[in-house]
Design goal:
The complex is a heterodimer of chains A (390) and B (141). Chain A has 14 helices and eleven strands. Chain A has 390 residues and is α/β, with parallel strands linked by helices. In chain A, strand 10 and strand 11 form a beta hairpin. The longest helix of chain A is centred in the middle third of the chain and has 16 residues. Chain A is globular, with a radius of gyration of 19 Å. Chain A starts with 7 loop residues before the first strand and ends with a strand. Chain B is mainly beta and 141 residues long. Chain B is 8% helix and 35% strand. In chain B, a hairpin with a 4-residue loop joins strand 6 and strand 7. The two termini of chain B are 23 Å apart. The chains are: A alpha/beta (390), B mainly beta (141). Chains A and B meet through helix 4, helix 5, helix 6 and strand 5 of A and strand 4, strand 5, strand 6 and strand 7 of B. Strand 5 of chain A pairs antiparallel with strand 5 of chain B, so a sheet runs across the interface.
């Protein structure tokens, strides 16, 4: 039993509307993060001055800026993990340690993305290529060959799997279709009101073969945040706490070269998931729903395999026949995910898991949801996973 | 294959340190990888220290330049504007016979004709006076 098991919980969540383009008051990246923080702190029944730990997302607003706007006068603990989309999960582990060790009482994990109105990925790769995953290695050894963007990196891996195991485009499509279905039940989802059939998926334009338009996530503007504290303090707060049962991080090896790994499908999740399940004392069979970081469709299939929900090579079959849809054996990305809710760097996966475990997910509620997992995925496959329970 | 520096507008490696040496070897017509002087292990991408045996000593070791195509993507919508005139193009992963995998590009082969396991050999594309990119062509024999 780990010292962290059952120590910490999520007691407040908040998010702004998710948007593509500004159709309301003028946003700024700082403002959308702060609005999400305000909402999460209020949801927790706390005042901003109760916050004494802030774990900012790498590349977004720094702790000093958030603290001075929120009025956090006694910031006792701050730290950032440089693992891209695995950041929220890594920060949750960090928050749990800080709370368990008495370094902080109420830890705020802010995040979101200004990914539509701010610099788009296609601008960053031109203006600042070494800030992308792989850093100068990618700049010097990938970019000159036209391998410049995430959709291209990860389509390499999808095709590799197709070559090796016969995974089909319709199986990638099953992920897109399932998540779009879930988005129809989610008022926050950008793709609500735009259902997607397999025929429409297959007819969508090819971006980087085998990835079509609908294999790709939605760059969006939106903030999301959550608050972590100890189970003991949670007793005095209004929300039913969502408990952290297990948490782990992992990295593929080597982390900075997508194509140099002995097992090309290895991810951070490969080692992280068994550690998190062991800490929680569960197996994949005990999981009622999974919010899986989904920059592209195949990375959902890949993580399902690497986490042990099915055997290597069998992920394509696993996602078919409604198994990952609401009502199926393992509902995946019940909010629509990065593909159909919004790409806000995976913060929305945590928000959704908490809503599910509180029983507040409305039409898309997973019946009797007791245990859910949330994964994060960053750079060339850095991983974090949290096992959450009610 | 030589072009004027002025007309080549795609991203280039920053010619410093081990990166510079790697591409300078290509300019001389040699695809080389680092070979550890302690344990003989070949490695790529360049690093100063051998992760297996801990040795800081290494030398550039010429590769046969032969291998096979293991994966690729056919880029239809260029994310980077410098490749807009090249679509569709196919960045690829080549697994060399000596075990090293690298990102490159298969020339002289339509993207529809690419297939897993296709044997390839290195060719050198002198894209600027300073930089030569190792690319690959189909081995038909």
């Amino acid at each position: 039993m780990s010292a962290l098991q059952g120590e910490a919980c999520i007691v407040g969540i908040g998010n702004t509307p998710y948007r593509r383009g500004s159709d309301g008051p003028v946003d700024s990246p700082l403002r959308i993060e702060l609005e999400a923080c305000e909402a999460a702190i209020a949801d927790a029944g706390l005042r901003p001055s109760d916050i004494d730990g802030i774990l900012p997302f790498y590349g977004l607003s720094i702790a000093e800026n958030l603290a001075v706007n929120l009025g956090v006068e006694d910031l006792r603990y701050q730290a950032t993990s440089h693992v891209g989309g695995a950041g929220p999960g890594a920060s949750l582990a960090n928050a749990a340690m800080a709370v368990a060790a008495g370094l902080a009482s109420h830890v705020l994990i802010p995040g979101g993305w200004y990914g539509f109105s701010g610099r788009r990925v296609r601008q960053i790769i031109v203006q600042d290529p070494s800030s992308m995953a792989g850093g100068v290695n990618a700049r010097d050894f990938y970019f000159p060959f036209g391998l410049t963007a995430p959709v291209q990196w990860f389509s390499f891996i999808a095709r590799w799997h197709m070559n090796e195991f016969g995974t089909k485009p319709e199986q990638l499509g099953a992920v897109a279709v399932a998540q779009r279905k879930h988005a129809q039940l989610n008022p926050n989802a950008l793709m609500r009101g735009k259902p997607l059939s397999m025929e429409e998926y297959l007819a969508s334009p090819m971006i980087s073969d085998p990835y079509r338009l609908f294999d790709c996530s939605l760059e969006a503007d939106g903030g999301a945040a959550f608050v972590v504290t100890s189970l003991e303090r949670a007793r005095d707060l209004p929300q039913k706490p969502v408990k952290l049962l297990g948490v782990a991080q992992g990295q593929p090896y080597p982390a900075d070269d997508l194509v140099g790994r002995e097992d090309v499908f290895q991810l951070g999740q490969t080692s992280a998931a068994p550690r998190a399940f062991e800490m929680a004392g569960i197996t994949p069979r005990d999981v009622d729903f999974a919010e899986i970081y989904d920059p592209f469709t195949f990375q959902v299939i890949q993580q399902l395999e690497e986490m042990g929900f099915c055997k290597p090579g069998e992920g394509g079959g696993f996602v078919e026949d409604g198994r990952i849809e609401l009502g199926g054996e393992l509902p995946v990305n019940t909010h629509g995910g990065l593909l159909s809710e919004a790409h806000v760097l995976g913060m929305n996966h945590f928000i959704e898991a908490v809503r599910q475990l509180r029983g507040e997910a409305g039409e898309r509620q997973v019946e009797d949801a007791e245990i859910g997992i949330v994964t994060g995925f960053g750079d060339f496959g850095d991983g974090a996973i949290a096992v959450l329970g009610r | 294959m030589t072009r004027e520096a002025a007309e080549y507008r795609k991203p280039l490696p920053v010619m410093e340190g081990m990166t510079k040496e790697f591409y300078e070897n290509c300019s001389r017509g040699e695809l080389c990888f680092q070979r550890c002087s302690g344990c003989e292990k070949l490695r790529h991408l360049p690093t100063p220290r051998c992760a297996r045996c801990g040795s800081w000593d290494w030398e550039w070791s010429p590769s046969t330049g032969r291998g096979k195509l293991v994966t690729w993507t056919v880029v239809r919508r260029p994310m980077h504007p410098d490749f807009a005139d090249d679509v569709p193009y196919a960045p690829a992963v080549i697994e060399l016979d000596d075990g090293i995998r690298m990102v490159s590009w298969v020339v002289d082969c339509a993207s529809d004709d690419l297939c897993a396991g296709m044997p390839v050999e290195v060719v050198f594309d002198h894209v600027t006076d300073a930089v030569t990119l190792p690319k690959f062509r189909r081995l038909t024999t």
